[in-house]
TrEMBL record, chain A:
Keywords: Proteasome. This is Proteasome subunit beta type-1. The lineage of its organism: Eukaryota, Viridiplantae, Streptophyta, Embryophyta, Tracheophyta. It comes from the Eukaryota.
Automatic annotation (TrEMBL), chain B:
GO terms for cellular component: cytoplasm; nucleus; proteasome core complex, beta-subunit complex. It is found in: Cytoplasm; Nucleus. It holds the Pfam family Proteasome. Component of the 20S core complex of the 26S proteasome. The 26S proteasome is composed of a core protease (CP), known as the 20S proteasome, capped at one or both ends by the 19S regulatory particle (RP/PA700). The 20S proteasome core is composed of 28 subunits that are arranged in four stacked rings, resulting in a barrel-shaped structure. The two end rings are each formed by seven alpha subunits, and the two central rings are each formed by seven beta subunits. The catalytic chamber with the active sites is on the inside of the barrel. It comes from Citrus x changshan-huyou. Non-catalytic component of the proteasome. Belongs to the peptidase T1B family. This is Proteasome subunit beta. The keyword Transferase does not apply.
Length: 208, 242
């Protein structure tokens, strides 16, 4: 008896790329706003960035339904934390929670590639990078998603020596959108987190 | 992973897990757009059984509650099941009798959760849903796929519509379309689908929802043109063919 193969896959790749870079007392998180499936664009105006706590922002690419479910779960857990501890969750704390949440579904994973950005307990910028099943690491900068293979070498090159890069997220993503990533484009959403709060801006990218 | 049998019946202990389905009676594209006063949605009335067009009077757009329209493509029986769930939801909402009623955003969220949780159980509702509505002056138009992928936009389309209608809408849609222009634009999309989608039938309904309420048109047919010279003498270049 042959094994019955399913006629559908529970996963889809809705594309996109995320980047996060940590500074001395700030953090920049950026992601494109295109949502695609196969070679079709579903919408040009979809935000992949989610604010989880006052000092903690998550950007995720991959399968959008799983990303949404993950964001909802973390937001709910954060609300409970606030009720129980009467304060916001710290970024390192949220980082651990995200890792545990991802591993919980180790045998039917969230197809979600995340970067977490924010300020740690001392006010310094921090970036955490994840794989789909929760393995994570604190780093100075990272990118995830379809364009990450093109962005990471660029960031490695620019950020190996400490230099005040004005807004590297903008520069990091534009040259790559001119390159081969079919599912990257439309708009770039940039979020800057510092002690003054959260600031968001947009940049146009190619539309094709 | 688990090897528990989900369904009883003629299933033996060594049989494969039977949860994943194949669609049987399916509807094709739904196209919808936001216009000045609300949402316009169009779908034909065909229900295909594989490559046969078996049913020609299937209503694939239904009003839900006071503020929303739901259009579905894919498995018709799953759509009917969803309508039963939504009936119950709207009933409980009405029973609160508190002056509030579920709006399109809430329904879209509910449908997304239902579709996503069914896909988590490997037993999807085989539909692509379009949810549009107006509440308190706010227009809303969103889409959910059978695996839970959801988004909202100014114009959406399912199935073939995604490939054939969306580019037309991207080119010609603009903010504050009048009702007549909106209908013309939808008919243009439906006409292209009628020419190019083999599961389309020439009997469609256009539904409109505004703050005042819902109207679903009587079924009607689009005018098509087949008098191209290339069709006049098709065997001219190849004698003996048909």
């Amino acid at each position: 008896m042959t094994k019955q193969h399913p006629a559908w896959s529970p996963y889809d790749n809705n594309g996109g790329t995320c980047v996060a870079i940590a500074g001395a007392d700030y953090c920049v998180i950026a992601a494109d706003t295109r949502m695609s499936t196969g070679y079709s664009i579903l919408t040009r105006d979809y935000s992949k960035i989610c604010k989880l706590a006052d000092k903690c922002v998550m950007a995720s690419s991959g399968f959008q339904a799983d990303v949404k479910a993950l964001q909802k779960l973390l937001a709910a857990r954060h609300l409970i934390y606030q009720h129980q501890h009467n304060k916001q969750m710290s970024c390192p704390g949220m980082a651990q929670l995200l890792s545990n949440t991802l591993y919980y579904k180790r045998f039917f994973p969230y197809y979600s590639f995340n970067v977490l950005g924010g300020l740690d307990n001392e006010g310094k910028g921090c970036v955490y990078t994840y794989d789909a099943v929760g393995s994570y690491e604190r780093v100075g900068y990272s990118s995830q998603g379809s364009g990450s293979t093109l962005i990471m070498p660029f960031l490695d090159n620019q950020l190996k020596s400490p230099s005040p890069l004005l807004l590297p997220a903008q520069d990091a993503v534009t040259p790559l959108s001119e390159a081969e990533a079919v599912d990257l484009g439309d708009k770039l959403e940039i979020v800057v987190l510092n002690k003054g709060g959260i600031h968001r801006e947009y940049m146009e990218l190619r539309k094709d | 992973m688990e090897s528990i049998q989900a369904k009883q019946g003629l299933v033996g202990p060594n049989d494969p897990i039977q949860r994943t389905q194949l669609p049987y009676v399916t509807g094709t594209s739904v196209v919808a757009l936001k216009y000045k006063d609300g949402i316009l949605m169009a779908a034909d009335m065909g229900g295909s059984y594989g490559s046969t067009i078996r049913y020609k009077s299937v209503e694939r757009i239904k009003p839900i509650g006071k503020h929303s329209l739901l259009g579905a493509s894919g498995e018709i029986s799953d759509f009917q099941e969803l309508l039963r769930n939504l009936d119950e939801l709207i009933l409980y909402d009405n029973m609160w009798d508190d002056g509030n009623s579920l709006g399109p955003k809430e329904l879209h969220s509910y449908l997304t959760r239902v579709m996503y949780n069914r896909r988590n159980k490997f037993d999807p509702l085989w539909n692509s849903l379009v949810l549009g509505g107006v509440k308190n002056g706010q227009k809303y138009l969103g889409m959910v796929s059978m695996i839970g992928v959801n988004f909202e936009d100014s114009h959406v389309a399912t199935g073939f519509g995604n490939h054939l209608a969306r580019p037309i809408l991207r080119d010609e849609w603009h903010e504050n379309l009048s009702y007549e222009d909106g209908v013309k634009l939808l008919e243009k999309c439906m006409r292209v689908l009628l020419y190019r989608d083999r599961s389309a039938v020439n009997k469609l309904q256009i539904a409109k929802i505004t703050e005042e309420g819902t109207t679903i048109s009587q079924p009607y047919a689009l005018k098509t043109f087949w008098g191209f010279t290339a069709f006049q003498n098709p065997t001219a270049g190849a004698e003996g063919s048909w």
